[in-house]
Design brief:
The complex is a heterodimer. By secondary structure, chain A is an alpha+beta fold. Chain A is built from 16 helices and 20 strands. In chain A, strands 10-9-8-11 form a four-stranded mixed sheet, sandwiched between helices. In chain A, strands 4-15-19 form a three-stranded antiparallel sheet. Chain A has a three-stranded mixed sheet with strand order 5-14-6. In chain A, helix 9 links the parallel strand 8 and strand 9. Chain A is elongated and about 90 Å long. By secondary structure, chain B is α/β, with parallel strands linked by helices. Chain B has 19 helices and 18 strands. Chain B has helices spanning about 10-25, 50-55, 65-80, 85-100, 105-140, 150-160, 165-180, 190-195, 260-270, 285-295, 305-315, 360-390, 395-400, 410-420, 430-440, 440-445, 450-465, 480-500, 510-519, and strands at about 1-5, 35-40, 45-50, 200-205, 215, 220, 235-240, 245, 260, 275-280, 295-300, 315-320, 325-335, 340-345, 350-360, 405, 475-480, 505. The chains are: A alpha+beta, B alpha/beta. The interface between A and B is large, with 51 and 49 residues. Chain B: One of its GO terms (molecular function) is ATP-dependent protein folding chaperone.
Chain lengths: ~575, ~525
């Protein structure tokens, strides 16, 4: 113990949200997050001053993980949003924007935060009730019998990330590929518990996006010693496959306890054992020999001489895919011979050229629900963003399969919900206020803040200075481009595409005061028209998380910072 | 070596310290309060309304402050609630004393006053509460209470510990959890079990809103099955303490002592028909492979304490391979993308696990600690209640005899009225001091609407003279816990008053206990 530091006392801040510096940080962060929302988002370049990678992104999970805010309250919010994204894959930015707007609305008005929190909670219950009810007009059924709505979901997911750098045709193509890959992961045949397969994503840099493709089965990196001639010599499939998860390197250090008798060379003895394994595999007529870890070069040579295709260093992730695709059981030891039922089967082997990468294609025998998505893109940064986006979309599609409902995208769900809540809160103000032990004025003020925050999330989708409108019939969101005069006759359809403009419709700019109205359900024939859709479970959870985290932040009355 | 000589402990320094502490906790006092947010440069965050946690995290240096924190800690260990009220009461008691004695304050007065406080605490307090609170409460509004008493107690507790939204979710949840364990029969035993094993009987899941929380049947093992197969209604579970070693040659046994010999596991699995293996250690890959081939469920790297609890509840029996318990079902729980293994022991069908969800680690910790606190509070109330009337088996009796009161200042108002009334003939100065001090609690509770406070006070005075009582349902609190709180505050105040000099030393203090530990 060289020296003893005296502990310094903690730094305390009373009512942190009334502190101007903290408010400024909140505003800045809100601007950063809100400007990342939607297909016309402003991209963020994240880089470290001392060098390293530069990533261009507008994706929540990448941005929030890479840029930790300095303000501890914001850290809390970021952590919660990241947790949400991890679970649901989508609507993270929405949660962040809504949460920050709620905090902003309350602090700007300077109203009593505990009343505001109670009102928010109450309105959240109403939102939840409405969204889950059968007559909710902000959601549409996803028809699993046709590709239309699933494709719309995928398309909205891809097009909302401009950092992928895709043009409309490419967006369409990637969405279609994603859907195709997703459909291949659904196993055929009806068992009680359906387990979805997985899509392995392989990125290829420096190729045009059109070259992206979906392959059934798996693509492995071609081992150096394998030539296309070797495959031709194999003859027609299916081929038998042996799989090892134990290392076959023959290293002594990996063996743990063993007894060594004097006079024997342990390495030679081990190699002999390995060769015995090879001998058995060859005797059992296996054509493919895969190992998760390293294979001893002598064993590799031995197998190759007998016409066996050898692939080593698969990695644990690929090992799982191989087991589920081929039905092979990975042998965990080289001591015992591989039992007959542990072998798997592959229908065909071929070499695929994916841009500059040569890949060995393993085709499945039956319907294994495993496929490989090869994504090509021009540069690394865009490819990374595209990969993240594809993961998100796959997640969203999986959630849609579980609960075949989608929410209207493009801001329409937010404006619609806001109009509905505004209507309810005005109608039942006195009753709800007495329930919550506050005055009707306080209740209406807090409810207004809630609705404005929802509208702010819709408004954040527009970044080019266009005017965001809401119609007074259905409560949908409409955008009038900036360079045009505001003329409601030029409006054709709302942001989600569900409502077409018709005579007698009225609009109001979002955020302005407007006469009270109860949003009507859309005309009956139009539900199939919605072309911008969002994931229902993700957005509903995001709404909950946003209100909860805003309540938590508003609840904080005292901050104590430990300086030790 | 004494570095510094005397630094006087008059009335002023402790009062200042207590006022500062009071200011810190007052922000989160009562259902209208907010929370306190701690951060550390290492990135740790803590959101809490728990008075004791706040005090502990402040890392106070001042000797008087540390003495107070110690007193609060001791009190909370017993009653599990009331740390914020403690500071409020202490602060107003001290300031009442200062304003009462004024200029004539010296150490002799302090000592005398401390003596009288203690005297009151030992001899008068029980009497005051019995006559002033319990008797009157039993004839008061409490008759109109309708609703579940456990729920009332939990609700009263939660209102001070978490925000309004979480409280609405957590209070019924904790009650359901208790009811599942108790099976509808009232008794202190299930609460004692939950209280002792709370850390093993809850599972925290982050990333989901708090509304997704629930109660799951059986014990949740916090990890997923490595291999899982559906099994019939009754299965034998083999619990392994260590990893399996192959023991290639029969009869030779294992190479090391800490392994379980594989042949023994096989024999045990076959003889008993055990088709679920639970292991505290990571098992070799070939065991997993064997399990998959033989349709045996396998879960690895489990918390040994959880396994011990499972064996305890499942009345396991030892075998050469490990302990064996019977389960009525083994399941896989799916919670927001996370999969968890769950086992229902056959001998403990009432065993349940609390599943707590929260959007992130901060709020989740708050929920967990609030639920833990609620269980501890229930445990204390049940114990007190049983010691007072062991035969009683219904809550109506506890309500009727005035051992439970509505939250929101009823206790303090009743006590205040009694201490100042002519019925009480105790030490007049102490009575007056205490009567004024206790008003600070309802005052702080209704600080956002002072008019409520006056109305409530008037309401109680009216009822005391036979006014009507409305039926009501809301939070409840136990009079025993309040009594405990008052006596702790009085003792702490006496301690503060009797200290005359603080000596600062550099050598570490050796207490008899630390000597024993070293031996």
């Amino acid at each position: 113990m060289s020296r003893v530091c005296k502990r310094s006392g903690p730094a305390c801040t009373d009512r942190p949200l009334s502190d101007r510096a903290v408010r400024a940080k909140f505003d800045a962060w809100r601007h950063v997050v809100a400007s990342c929302l939607g297909p016309r988002a402003r991209l963020k370049q994240v880089r470290n001053g001392v060098g390293g990678r530069v990533s261009t992104t507008s994706t929540c999970s990448v941005l929030l993980a890479a840029v930790p805010p300095s303000e501890p309250l914001l850290k809390l919010l970021t952590a919660c949003v990241l947790q949400h994204v991890q679970r649901f894959g989508d609507a993270g930015l929405f949660a962040a924007v809504l949460g920050l707007s709620l905090v902003d609305q309350v602090t700007r008005r300077g109203s009593d935060s505990s009343t505001a929190v109670r009102v928010h909670q109450r309105l959240l219950e109403l939102c939840d009730l409405y969204l889950t009810s059968a007559d909710c007009c902000a959601k549409v059924e996803v028809d699993l019998g046709s590709c239309r709505s699933l494709l719309a979901l995928a398309h909205s997911g891809v097009s909302s990330k401009p950092a992928c750098g895709l043009d409309p045709a490419e967006t369409q193509q990637v969405s279609a590929l994603l859907l195709k890959a997703f459909l291949q992961t659904i196993p055929c045949g009806s068992t009680d518990t359906v387990r979805l397969g997985e899509t392995v994503v392989v990125g290829v840099e420096g190729e045009a996006v059109e070259n992206s493709a979906v392959f059934p089965g798996l693509l492995l990196d071609v081992p150096e010693m394998l030539h296309s001639g070797d495959l031709e010599r194999l003859g027609p499939g299916p081929y038998k496959l042996a799989l090892f998860s134990a290392s076959l390197s023959g290293d002594l250090s990996e063996r743990g306890n063993m007894e060594i008798h004097t006079g024997t060379d342990p390495e030679a003895a081990l190699l002999e054992k390995l060769l015995k394994v090879g001998e058995q595999v060859v005797r059992d007529c296996a054509t493919l020999f895969l190992c998760q870890k390293v294979i001893h070069p002598v064993l590799q040579q031995y197998l190759r001489e007998r016409g066996v295709v050898v692939v080593e260093r698969l990695g644990i992730a690929m090992l799982e895919q191989v087991t589920s695709m081929t039905g092979a059981q990975a042998a965990a030891t080289s001591h015992t011979p591989v039992p007959a039922e542990a072998f798997g089967w592959v229908e065909a082997l071929s070499i695929q050229l994916c841009g500059t990468r040569k890949m060995l294609h393993l085709q499945p025998t039956a319907n294994p629900a495993v496929c490989t998505l090869v994504l090509c893109h021009r540069n690394e940064s865009m490819l990374d963003e595209l990969k993240v986006t594809c993961k998100r979309v796959q997640h969203v599609l999986q959630l849609a399969l579980k609960d075949p409902v989608a929410l209207l995208g493009g801001g329409c769900m937010e404006t619609h919900l806001s109009a509905y809540i505004r209507h309810l809160s005005r109608r039942d103000a006195a009753e709800m206020a007495s329930d919550l032990d506050c005055s009707p004025q306080e209740f209406l003020l807090a409810a207004d803040g809630f609705c404005r925050s929802l509208e702010a999330a819709a408004q954040a989708l527009e970044h080019d200075g266009g005017l965001v409108l809401m119609d007074l019939n259905y409560g949908h969101c409409w955008v009038c481009p900036a360079d045009e005069e505001l003329d409601t006759s030029t409006l054709l359809s709302c942001s989600c595409g569900l409502i077409n403009s018709s005579a007698g419709m009225e609009w109001t700019t979002l955020g302005s005061t407007h006469p009270d109205f109860c949003p009507r359900p859309p005309p009956g024939d139009s539900t199939a028209r919605a072309c911008v859709l969002d994931s229902f479970p993700a957005k509903r959870n995001a709404l909950n998380v946003a209100v909860e985290i805003a309540s938590l932040i508003l609840d904080v009355k005292y901050v104590i910072r430990d300086l030790n | 070596p004494v570095q510094q000589g005397r630094c006087g402990v008059g009335m002023q320094p402790p009062l200042l310290v207590v006022s500062a502490l009071r200011a810190a906790v007052l922000r989160c006092f009562g259902p209208r309060g907010g929370s306190v947010f701690f951060t550390r440069d290492t990135g740790d965050v803590l959101v809490t309304r728990h008075g004791q946690k706040i005090l502990r995290s402040l890392q106070l240096e001042h000797p008087a402050a540390r003495l107070i924190v110690d007193c609060v800690h001791t009190h909370c260990q017993i009653a599990a609630d009331g740390s914020k009220s403690f500071l409020l009461l202490l602060s107003s008691l001290l300031s009442e004393m200062v304003s009462c004695c004024g200029a004539s304050w010296d150490s002799a007065t302090a000592r005398r006053l401390a003596q009288r406080l203690l005297q009151f605490c030992w001899t008068g307090l029980d009497d005051v509460i019995a006559r002033g609170v319990t008797q009157r409460a039993s004839s008061l509004a409490i008759c109109g209470y309708h609703g579940d008493v456990v729920e009332g107690l939990v609700r009263g507790y939660m209102a001070g510990r978490v925000g309004d939204g979480p409280a609405k979710v957590l209070s019924p949840l904790v009650c359901r959890f208790y009811q599942k364990w108790s099976g509808g029969v009232r008794g202190a035993e299930p609460v004692a079990v939950i209280h002792t094993h709370f850390s093993l009987l809850h599972t925290a899941v982050s990333g989901l809103p708090i509304g997704c929380s629930g109660v799951a049947e059986g014990l949740v093992l916090e990890r997923d099955w490595s291999a899982f197969f559906e099994h019939g209604p009754r299965v034998e579970v083999l619990v392994l303490a260590a990893s399996v070693c192959p023991a290639a040659e029969p009869g030779r046994g294992c190479v090391c002592d800490r392994c379980v010999a594989w042949p023994q596991v096989c024999v045990c699995a076959q003889q008993l028909g055990a088709c679920v293996l639970l292991s505290a250690a990571k098992q070799p890959d070939w065991v997993l492979q064997w399990a998959r081939r033989n349709r045996v469920c396998l879960a690895e790297c489990l918390d040994p304490e959880r396994l011990d609890l499972l064996c305890l509840l499942g009345q396991s029996r030892p075998t050469p391979a490990g302990r064996v318990a019977t389960a009525t079902s083994v399941r896989r729980l799916v919670l927001g993308g996370r999969r968890l293994a769950a086992v229902v022991p056959a001998h403990a069908p009432r065993a349940h696990t609390l599943l707590l969800c929260g959007p992130g680690p901060g709020p989740l910790d708050q929920s967990v600690s609030a639920c833990r606190g609620a269980v501890a509070m229930l445990h204390h109330v049940f114990e007190e209640d049983q010691s007072q009337s062991p035969a009683a088996d219904c809550w109506a009796e506890a309500l009727g005899s005035g051992r439970l009161l509505p939250v929101g200042g009823a206790f303090e108002l009743l006590l205040h009225d009694f201490l100042l009334s002519s019925d009480w003939t105790g030490d007049p100065q102490v009575s007056r001091l205490l009567a004024r001090a206790v008003l600070s609690v309802p005052g702080a509770l209704h600080s956002h609407k002072p008019r409520h406070f006056l109305q409530l006070h008037a309401h109680f005075l009216r009822q005391g003279s036979g006014g009507p009582s409305r039926p009501w349902s809301g939070g409840l609190e136990s009079v025993a816990a309040k009594r405990q709180l008052l006596s702790a505050v009085l003792q702490c105040a006496a301690k503060l008053l009797t200290v005359e000099t603080v000596l600062r030393v550099h050598a570490p203090l050796r207490t008899s206990r630390s000597d024993e530990e070293e031996d």
